[in-house]
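Worked problem 6 (solution included).
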Amino acid sequence: MPPYCRGNRIFAVVPEFVDDAGHLGEISSADRSSFGLYGGGRRLTGGEHILLYRGVKVPPDVGRFRLYLTTERKTPWWGLSTKVKTAWRFVSTPTEGERVTLPLLNPTYDVPVDRRNRAPDDGRFVFDVTVTPPKGATVSPLHRFRVKASFDGGHTWRFGRTRVLGGGHYAVALRHPPKEQTDGFVALKMHAADDSGNRVWQSVERAYRLTKSS
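Solution. The predicted structure is:
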């Protein structure tokens, strides 16, 4: 169920791990997760997991909110997406009791990697990103979309070239350096904003691996 507002309460359940088919992953004892919801210049709630089944009461005069979620999994058997940080800014106003889906922009990535989640090094590499609100939320056109990549563990970043495909879909082109000039991985940062004031920022450590091109 997507996050929603009813009356002056916000309800949300946001899973930390989801694959490209929409399957949910389980949190293990090796994972670290934290979130915070802010509005009107103050922290409204926070904790380990976004499990707001009973809702959080929000001030009636506040219409802009910020939500932060950080998930970290660093174990020998989990080599990719070791830390994911997502920040949302969204607009919501109290309702008269009806359920209104919150317009949290959601980025999804379609990266053409092999079965070991590797992409060829030393050349141009293109993948797709889609940014849309949850089903049932009001859709506003996006006016900003940017992607940066790091090949040295986040010490330096390079902007990718983006092309609008329509409907929140974008093509992103990166220039992969030779693998020996990298840490063997690609980290990603993205930022998108729509015309209604909703925004999303996301960073993914070790999003995918590099392999020597044939």
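Discussion: The chain has one domain: 4-211.
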